[in-house]
Fold this protein.
Amino acid sequence: MMAALIFVVSVITLLMFFVSYCRSLMASSSSHMLSREVREVTGIPELPCGQDFVRVMQLLQLCPERREDRTGLQAVGTYFKILNFIEQSIARVVPSIRAWAEHERAGCANFAAVVLDRRIALSREILAEQGGL
Amino acid sequence: MPGPIASLIWYLGTALELAFVVCSIARNSFYRYFFLNLYLLLTVGTSVARHLILGWFGLNSSQYRYMYFYTDALLTLALYLALISLYLRVFGELNFGKHVRLLAVLLLLGTVIFSYAVVAQSAGRLSTLFAYELSQNLYFVGLVLTYLLWGAVIKLRETRTRLVQFILALGVYFSAYAAGYALLNLESKYSVVLTIGPALGCLLPLSWTITMWRHSEDSRLVPAQLVSVHR
């Protein structure tokens, strides 16, 4: 009984810290202004919405990978899946959660778009180096 | 000897711990986060020592068991110091450093006395039991302290990205470890549960290394975005 209680409490605190960790990852990229190219490629007008996340992730597959982004993307991707689950389950019962989940999903999409922006910049650098050679 | 998966997790964990130390030296932050580095260096040293003892005496030997529990207590103590060093960084600018140190020593003494009081009633192998009890209790104290520290970070609107992410990674690690222990007590018959604990141990050096590598000491984030609730 005690072990079960500890397990439940630990999982709740784990989720809380994980969500905050993902938010801190997203917050660290929130000041980044998306370039015009990324806006055009992704079709994001001003601010990304939750639906943009999947499309941006697909575009990310086409760019050369930056190692330092990989774990952050995985963490935010997991957070996005949790949010999707919340939207399709709890949000149907408690509608006020839907707005919150959508706001968070948009944050995930923005994070992915910033990573895409950096990867495009990296690709351009590589091309410039090859051109220089 | 441990199986191939357990060995792989062991090597991976040790490599990640070393990676953090190398990373903090490369980023000129070794002394700035000295206790975090000390903890991970001790973990690497302990891993090597445990591996040697395991090879010489075997998994079921009393030598390995003693070695395991004593080094575990030492590592928990080092992690406690690392956590207090993060407290000092958060409260340092408020000139609460002296109070934090005093409280940390008192809390540690209290935990030591409590652990001793628990094991003093049982007979035989008092020192091993004490090391085990101290380790368990310090883990619990660590989890509570991390939770409180996170509350302070939110309240004080801490903006230092590195500090925030170090604390959050520590919170994820403590919570996951506690959940792993509880799951082990609930369902120890499944072998997958036995590998969860060591696998979770890789999370802390991994996330700390990423933070150290990606963010400089000057890197800042917007504190409101950590707690914002959309209305």
